[in-house]
Amino acid sequence: MEDQSIVSALLLGLVEGLTEFIPVSSTAHVLLAGHFLGFRSPGNTFAVLIQLGAILAILSVYAQKLVGIAVTLPSSARSRHFVLSILVAFLPAAVIGALAHGFIKSVLFETPALMCTVLILGGLVLLWIDRQALTPRYTDVMQYSLPLAFKIGLCQCVAMIPGVSRSGATIVGALLLGADKRSAAEFSFFLAMPTMVGAFTLDLYKNRNALNFDDTALIAIGFVAAFISALLVVKSLLNYVSKRGYAFFAWWRIAVGGLGLAALALGF
């Protein structure tokens, strides 16, 4: 295992953790960074498997709330409704992800120009949504209706195109459907748990015979880096978006997408 690969895995893990829960598309950032660093993994598994590190960050931050929900599940209709809403929102991605896994990994993950273009388009969407005078009807993530949760889950499926952003798709969808900024971001956090665990499990199963010791070691390095950097983001994002919105992330997407297209045009 080369030192250059170790450094690349560390950098990509940091990128994953810093971008997973903000609406800029962590997958596109990791894949584009890997492309320009010359970093490759069998079946592009690295970009998917290190996401579990970010999920552990969410679990640690929300551990008390999750334990409370689990403990009250048998006796609390509110807790049961919340868990069911997350499962309902997860269902579309579970079905479409399983059916389209091969196409996503072999085509979409291998098209840097598409990722850059989608980053720019997504940035324009965020700028538009940030300027809308939307009137929230849902402010408590525990009380999202099942139809609302399912519609947000459908929005999440668009993020199978790298560059869209899973958090961006679910947050924008929730905002347009009547959620406020804080609860939309929080629902996106909770929905990430089954979604990313499911993606991790499917990808690991599909590529179980392609990974060697060095691949596993690099994934472990990226995993730890993603966990640490994601902790920083999760603890601060809710307060930030509640007060300032998404304009900064929109311009970031546009800048990264534009620079990526320029670099590709120059042959990098």
Automatic annotation (TrEMBL):
Catalytic activity annotation: di-trans,octa-cis-undecaprenyl diphosphate + H2O = di-trans,octa-cis-undecaprenyl phosphate + phosphate + H(+)
Family note: Belongs to the UppP family.
Classification via HAMAP family: Undec_diphosphatase (MF_01006)
Keyword Lipid metabolism included in the entry's annotation: no
First-tier enzyme category under EC: hydrolase
Protein name: Undecaprenyl-diphosphatase
Originating species: Ciceribacter ferrooxidans
GO biological process: cell wall organization; peptidoglycan biosynthetic process; regulation of cell shape; response to antibiotic
EC number: 3.6.1.27
GO cellular component, one term: plasma membrane
